[in-house]
Amino acid sequence: MTKSQGLQNSLMLAPLIGATTSWAAALGLWLMFIVVVSAYGAGMWALRSRLVPIARLLACLLLSATLTSCAQMAAQLWSLQWHQPVALYAGLIALQCVVLEYNDFFQSPRLDRLRLCALFGALMVGLGLLRELIGNGGLHLATLAPGGFILLGALIAARQAWTRSTPSH
Amino acid sequence: MSRVSSVVILVLLAGLGIGATYLMQRTSAPRIAAEQRLIDSRKLLDLLPAQTYDNQPLEQPLALADITLPSSTLLGGYLATKAGQPSAVLLRSQTMGYEGSIELLIAIDSHGKLLGVKTLKQSETPGLGGKIADWPNTWLQGFAGKSRSDPDDAGWALKKDQGQFDQVAGATSTSRAVIGAIHDALRYFDEHRQQLIGSGTHD
Fold first, then answer.
1. Given strand B85-96, what is the order of strands in its sheet?
2. Which of A50, A123, B163, B184 has the maximal Cβ count within 10 Å?
């Protein structure tokens, strides 16, 4: 379908496990992602037609790095306490922009783009909520990375079982 | 699109990007650093109840005299105040434990009663003496409310030394060191109350 779906998805997997220890952190990181990707998309839309292909790559790097740095500093100013645990994954957003650009994400139809962002957000917040609830309920493994992986695997297994049990789909 | 215009646009973009990031960093760095200090100090000072002080004790260290005590050394002291009135004195004490030196933060209120003790640094046996570094710590909390006079000087020792306090299981030397440091700090507070608290309290 796209040139490197695997890379794109694995870059979304990292914050999905790392930044979902609490649903507030997950929501905050997703908001940062939306803001940076929107600003980046707008910038590249203005520049793409004016640049030769080689220059496009350099512009993409410059733009994503600048926007991510500014977004990180703005987030630190707004609430350092919330941002500290997810600062690592906020920096990853720059790489996500570059990979999305490589996969022609910004030239796909608007509905596809909205769908991907909404799916990412739903997964992040949903997983964050689940992990926080289970963690507070007593199973502290859920708030650690292994618990996140196990939970994600369980969710995937549940979804596959559900789609298989309804063969009309 | 041509190569020349591309190069020009790239240079402009680089300049804008670097400029924006640099400006943002310059304007936000002091505030972020202050916020970081606030978070660190709140974490360190959680042995004081939050509503008992409203200043920044770590920003105003006290000048201490006679810091060499019988079984410990004082590394520093801080004063916590509420509405200008002293509410607690924090003393950083260093003593020799079983494996190495132990650094404690001892909080004493203005009447000489112990508010709490926290371990800042230790290198004791993990699982035995190393238990003093757990936070919150039930053993260290057992000292809260004691003062120089309660128990008296003979009572400030382990039960096996004819004193009043239980030891940490399997860590006699560590427990003795901590008790000695706390007792030293309380005695120091009593002897230097005026210099530490200054004017303002009357007993």
1. B61-62, B73-82, B85-96, B101-109, B114-121
2. B184
A81 CB neighbours in chain B (<8 A) are 39
Residue of chain B nearest A51, judged by CA positions: B6
- B149 touching chain A per CB within 8 A: no
Q: Tell me which chain A residues have a C-beta less than 8 angstroms from the C-beta of B26.
A: none
Q: How much is the pLDDT for B201?
A: 42
Cβ-based neighbour number of residue B100 at 10 Å:
11
C-alpha dist (Å) from residue A142 to A9, A54, A147: 22, 45, 4
Asked if B1 and A50 come within 8 Å (Cβ–Cβ), the reply is yes
Q: What pLDDT digit, counting tens, does each position of A121-145 carry?
A: 999 999 999 999 998 888 888 888 8
Asked if A65's CB is within 8 angstroms of B28's CB, the reply is no
Taking Cα atoms as reference points, which of A57, A56, A55, A86 lies closest to residue A71?
A86
A59 and B10: CB-CB below 8 Å?
A: yes
Closest residue on chain A to B10 (Cα): A59
Which chain A positions have a beta carbon within 8 Å of B3's beta carbon? 52
Contact A77, B33 (CB under 8 A): no
pLDDT tens across the length of chain B (203 residues): 588 888 999 999 999 999 999 999 999 999 999 898 888 888 888 888 878 888 888 888 888 888 888 889 999 899 988 888 888 999 999 999 888 889 999 999 988 899 999 998 888 888 888 888 888 888 888 888 888 888 888 888 888 888 888 888 888 889 999 999 999 999 999 988 888 887 444 33
Q: How far is B188 from chain A (nearest CA, A)?
A: 37
B158 DSSP 8-state letter: B
H helical segments located in chain B = 3-44, 138-141, 172-191, 193-197
